[in-house]
Amino acid sequence: MNAPHRIAEPDTLSLPVRPTVVQILDEVAAHYGVTVAELTGRRRSRRVVWPRQMAMWTARRLTVHSLPSLGNAFARDHTTVMHGVAATAARFDALPETKEDAAAVLLRLQRRLTSDLHGGQRPAEGGEV
């Protein structure tokens, strides 16, 4: 019996440093047109839930924080973070275009972290500032 084909999660770009949860929240909020307050707030509308789950998946993947620590950052229980991470991974399987969202968020983070390393300036061609 063949196992169902599983679509791989988006690759993590080469990030110059690990992002903070605050940086992840900022970039996810900007990408989806919501506020950080909405991502960490109590609202459960579809407009906010998917970005929140994407932020949870990104934070779990790119930071070294424990689930309870991430739960605190999102004002949620750690089991809610576990569910958000799992729901995002499942959504990658069900809707391959959602991997493009994840890739866009990761690219935003890469640009921000690179810019922050260079004092807010974008690196010139060739990578030097």
Can you describe this structure?
The chain has helices spanning about 20-30, 35-40, 45-60, 65-75, 80-95, 100-115. α1 packs antiparallel against α3, α3 packs across α5 (about 80-95) and α4 crosses α5 (about 80-95). Helices cover about 60% and strands about 0% of the residues. It has a single domain, classed as Chromosomal Replication Initiator Protein Dnaa, Chain: A (Orthogonal Bundle), CATH 1.10.1750. It has 6 helices and no strands. Mean pLDDT is about 85; it is low at about 1-10 and about 125-129. It has about 130 residues and is an all-alpha fold.
Short description:
The chain is mainly α.
Largest sheet data:
none
CATH architecture: Orthogonal Bundle
What is the H/E order?
Answer: HHHHHH
Number of domains: 1
State the helicity in percent bands. Answer: 55-70%
Judging from the principal axes of the Cα atoms, what is the shape? Answer: globular
Q: How much of the polypeptide forms β-strand, as a percent range? A: under 5%
CATH class: Mainly Alpha
Q: The CATH topology, please? A: Chromosomal Replication Initiator Protein Dnaa, Chain: A
The helix count comes to: 6
- Classified in CATH, the superfamily is DnaA protein, C-terminal DNA-binding domain
CA distance, first residue to last residue: 55 Å
The secondary structure category is: mainly alpha
